Structures are given as C-alpha cells and as structure tokens.
Amino acid sequence: MQAIPFMVYDEPYYVVGYDIVKRNLDFLNRFQPKYFYKTGQYIFSSIESEGVIEINKIYSASLLRTIYGQAVETFFLFFSLVFKLHFV
C-alpha cells in the first residue's frame, strides 16, 4: 500500500493504493493519441460529405466539442502523471 501526498490550495490530500507508480505507467503505455486524430477525421469527413442534412452537422459539431474536452482532460492528466506534481 502506498500513499502519495499532494496539496489543493491549503488542503492536504493523499492518493492511496497498491502499486500507484505501476498503475500510472500502465495508463501511459495504453495512451493512444491516434484516437483523437481518427475521431476528428471521421467528424470532418461527415461534415464535408455532400447531401448531409443540417441536423447531422449540428450533431457532428457537438461531438467535436466533446472530443476536444476529452483531449484537454487527457492532456492535463498526462501532464500531471509525467511530471508528478506533488506540492508537499
């Protein structure tokens, strides 16, 4: 069992678990940046297709915003795991 301390503003917290370093490395090894690229390609090809009705363009734009949000969350998670931001 491991406990890794970190701070959020003035409040101390701990991440507690088994093999935290190994679990973080396993996550990083499974990281697939092609997911976002392939999804973006699919969305843009569906928007640019001829005969696409307007509602499908709206759905595609909403999907693109969702994927962008996932990409930003993944980036910050990846950033924090790589640089191990422990502020204690």
Helical run tally: 3
Give the C-alpha Rg.
19 Å
Low-pLDDT stretches are none
Structural class: alpha+beta
Tell me the major beta sheet: 2 strands, antiparallel
Textual characterization of the structure:
By secondary structure, this protein is an alpha+beta fold. The chain has one domain (2-83). The protein is 64% helix and 16% strand. The protein has helices spanning 20-30, 34-48, 54-83, and strands spanning 2-8, 11-17. Strands 1-2 form a two-stranded antiparallel ribbon. Helix 2 runs antiparallel to helix 3 (54-83). The protein starts with a strand and ends in a 5-residue tail after the last helix. 0% of the residues are buried.
In short:
The chain is 64% helix and 16% strand.
Keywords:
88 residues; alpha+beta; two-stranded antiparallel ribbon; 64% helix
Q: What is the topology?
A:
Elements: E1 2-8, E2 11-17, H1 20-30, H2 34-48, H3 54-83
Antiparallel strand pairs: 1-2
